[in-house]
Specification:
Strand order of the largest sheet: 6-7-8-3-9-10
Number of strands: 10
Bound molecules: adenosine-5'-triphosphate, magnesium ion
Strand content: 15-25%
Number of helices: 10
CATH class: Alpha Beta
Radius of gyration: 18 Å
CATH topology: Rossmann fold
């Protein structure tokens, strides 16, 4: 999208985003299928997620959006009876290689869910959590990285004076930014967001969308949203899924103004879903 305002948050290096369509995709799924038991819920998905862009993932409820995200960082490993076929590359890394280090994959591909899920710890310790798991022990380094992540998530100014307070005392919108700070503290390559703004009011949603633009300067974002206006406003590319298949992928402006597939058109014009 070309005409949107870019808001510059504190602490985020405002390096210009180079338009580089030849850049290798950050994440690339090929022939990706998923079964839960005998039921196939993803059907040979081919999706190349462009690096340092916002890709929206849209489609009717139950079409497999959350399942696809879970395949991309192997959260499906945790689900009994889930079976994956196909190929997923994170940069050069084969995500499903037998020797893949799953916790490292999950560091590189962070996920933020619809309901913010801060841990029952202090604000500081929520953001420091992943860093501690990575073995960062120095209080000084932790403090620095926590501050940088909170600034990047546009939350620092609201919490700087109360980092030791419990995270559960934050408002919903603050908790959502806290879990984003927690996800980016470990410097992921890709940040997946599964309907992250659905619990926010309209003003908080607009601020949140500005934050997404800021984050896309440094990270690859894959955003599931039920809100067509939001997909059209914030994303550079849009993927439309239906019944486990990726029906259409393209530049967001083109997909919304001139969809190639009838199913896409029906969905974005609200005829179903
Ligand atoms: N853990 C699970 N075990 C078995 N089936 C599941 C599981 N999780 C999801 N499913 C099924 O897989 C299909 C895809 O679900 P998924 O949650 O990925 O859809 P979605 O597109 O994210 O929907 P929504 O927009 O409502 O969040 C659905 O039919 C769902 O019932
Ligand atoms: Mg879902």
């Amino acid at each position: 999208m070309s005409t949107r305002a870019i808001h510059v948050a504190d602490g985020v290096a405002a390096a210009p985003r180079e338009p580089s369509p030849e850049e290798a995709p950050a994440l690339h799924a090929r022939g990706l299928s998923l079964w839960y038991g005998a039921r196939r819920v993803l059907d040979a998905i081919d999706l190349a997620v462009p690096a340092r862009r916002i890709t929206a993932l849209i489609g009717p409820s139950g079409c497999g959006k959350s399942s696809l995200l879970r395949c991309l960082n192997r959260l499906n490993d945790e689900i009994d009876g889930a079976r994956v076929e196909g190929d997923v590359r994170l940069g050069e890394t084969d995500v499903y290689a037998p020797d893949a280090v799953v916790h490292e994959l999950r560091r590189r591909v962070g996920i933020v869910f619809q309901r913010p899920n801060p841990f029952p710890l202090s604000i500081h310790d929520n953001v420091a959590y992943g860093l501690r798991l990575l073995g960062v022990r120095s209080r000084h380094v932790l403090d620095e990285r926590v501050e940088a992540a909170l600034r990047a998530a546009a939350l620092w100014d609201e919490v700087a004076s109360r980092l030791d307070d419990g995270a559960l005392g934050l408002s919903l919108g603050q908790q959502q930014r806290l879990v984003i700070a927690r996800a980016i503290a470990v410097e992921p390559d890709v940040l997946m967001l599964d309907e992250p703004a659905s619990a926010l009011d309209p003003a908080a949603t607009l601020r949140f969308e500005e934050l997404l633009h800021e984050l896309a300067r440094r990270y690859t974002l894959l955003l599931v949203t039920h809100n067509m206006q939001q997909a059209a406003r914030v994303s550079d590319f849009t993927a439309f899924m239906h019944a486990g298949r990726l029906v259409e992928f393209g530049d967001t402006d083109a997909l919304f103004t001139n969809p190639r597939e009838r199913q896409t058109e029906d969905f974005i014009t609200g005829r179903y879903g």
